[in-house]
Design brief:
The protein is an alpha+beta fold. It has helices at 8-29, 49-65, 93-97, 162-165, 169-177, 187-194, 208-211, 214-220, 247-254, and strands at residues 38-40, 46-48, 70-73, 77-79, 83-91, 104-111, 114-122, 127-132, 136-139, 142-143, 156-159, 180-182, 200-203, 224-226, 239-242. It is built from 9 helices and 15 strands. Helix 1 (8-29) packs antiparallel against helix 2, helix 5 crosses helix 9 (247-254) and helix 6 (187-194) packs parallel to helix 8 (214-220).
Amino acid sequence: MPERPATAEVREILAFAVRLAQEAGKHTLRSFGHQVAHTAKGDGSPVTAVDREAEALLRTRIAERFPEHGVLGEEEGETNAGVRWILDPIDGTRSFMRGVPLYGVLVGVEVEDVATVGVAHFPPLGETVAAALGLGCTWNGRSCGVSPVRRLSEALVLTTDPQRVARDAGWSALQARAGTVRGWGDCYGHALVATGRAEVMLDPIMHSWDSAPFLPIVTEAGGRFSSREGIATIHGTSALSTNGALHEEVLELLAT
């Protein structure tokens, strides 16, 4: 991933993105823990009125502060500019709908096509993981980093949906080598890697708004974020976060 020194603009965007994600998170908490009605999108995934309301809030605040910036959101489409905000108002809608506190508000920012700023806020947990290129990664405002584990046999490996990988030979090979395997998935799994609480997180199906914060977050935490093919991008169709030390070994196993 290209490296560039953090500018005053990037620092300003990062600080605003943190406040923005937390504001949207407060909005989602008004409905969290209650039965939430939903409809199905074209791909079969659920969407609630709260998803749309939270994205509308995010878009409004960005337009007020940075009217020249573009926005790509999961629910409301795309406008392009040299600086583009990429939004997932509720990543883990199924968790949100069931009152499981592992959903997140995701805010990523591309500057001239480089994933530069990332924020993942988990409203029920009161956790915010944030980063910008050259500025490191923070967890609730304090510097954080990935785990030092160097053996897969000692690693905690995560995935979102075991059904999606149940017949995957690469996943089976990875699971056989792992110390512990759990399903603490969606965005929270990637945040666990960045904060040193897990070593590997695999998502076999991703979109740009799912990945947008995690390339800067995991990289600045000292780890690696890539597609399953090993490409460092937020625009892949899969995502792998690791503590860095295990990345190549995991890629080799996934290619089995």
